[in-house]
Input
Amino acid sequence: MHSEKHEELLSLAALGVLSMGEEASEYERLLAEGCAECGELLSDLRLATSALAVAAAPRRPRRSLREEFLASLEPMRRPATRPARAAGWAFAAAAAVLFVIVALDDARLRRQREELRAQNSDLAERAEADRSELARRDLRARVFESDDVRMLFLGGQGPQPTARGKVFWSEKAKRGILVAGNLEPLPADRQYQLWVFVDGKPVDAGVFDVDPSGRALFESKDLAAVRTAQNFAVTVEPRGGLPQPSGPIVLLGSPQAS
Amino acid sequence: MSLRSDSTDRDRTDRALVAAIESRDADALARLYDRHSARLLGLAYRILGETGEAEEVLQEVFLYAWRAASTFDPSRGSVLAWLIVVTRSRAIDRLRTRRASPGHDPGENDPLAELPAGDDVEGGSAAREWEALCRSAVSELPSEQRRVLELAYFEGLTHQEIAQRTGAPLGTVKTRIRLGLMKLRERMQPYWVRERNA
Output
């Protein structure tokens, strides 16, 4: 059985209208206390809010909108995985071909040059994506190899309700990893800061930036010292971070959901 | 079909599509678009009241699904619930930007503003049953509770702003939000339980 106060806090959080002052702190404490039923109620209330959306009258989009959208994806279509080495060789080959073609002043070849430039750019993008993916996998593998690895989902809060994240941590590996997506890019003087909650109190776990697409892969060395992590949160803070959170919470864990 | 992550064929199909999108399968994205675009466009239009902007939001949402499929977390709900959250967030952002630029009339020069909503959203009888349940649950709420929920959900107003708009005390607004959402949950729970056990 939930108290009316708990129901109220969780209702406001589910609608994304929790204020960042006292209410956010109360909500944070409620989740940090490990209330098993609260996570379930929050999940239900979020679904209940979405029912408001389903109740809205649907509108069929015009056919041309679909075609325009799918056509806009053409430059980004590609197979799921390509070895980084193959992409690198292809990149080099394309660059060499491009060099030869640039020396010729022929209309047909100029056209080909433009096509190869586009291909070149695409290959460079693929190689970069593959390198990033390999780095991500390597980082994850080091934590996943630990037999005590734990994971917690983080949900978007307050000003960034669609942000998502996962924290993996292991005492034995002496490291933890935050994988987050859909975080908004911040001004140059701001950074995201990860907090670990121990006994209901936030402990600084480091600051990080996001890439232009709003993704972050952050490895925190500080987590090894945390033996009894109860929850995690991400706030927006001045660049370099603060000893205690001061900015809005944008990601918060729900321990019951892990 | 429901918003809770479940074992229904419909949500399994959606999740398989998202997994395919993650591996850059544009055909999977086209299928997901066909399955949910009408509902999401309806939501964006309900928030923005203008077809052009609602269409832009729809495109942004599916572009986001294309780029960020890996962030979908099935433990937090269904694919449709995920898309609804993204749609609402994008549309509310636009609404707030518009509020900061006075003089904009959302209904002005909107050729489709008066067209009736489509009712042939892709989906079978389970989808229609779910939609009917949602409409009925929302319409059965006491009007003052429905009003505060709609102001928060479709207009993105904080509870303080709702109190100012409606003239109701802040405590009353919070109570109405709580009671309204708890009632919606109560109405839908039997459906969630039934689907989980199906």
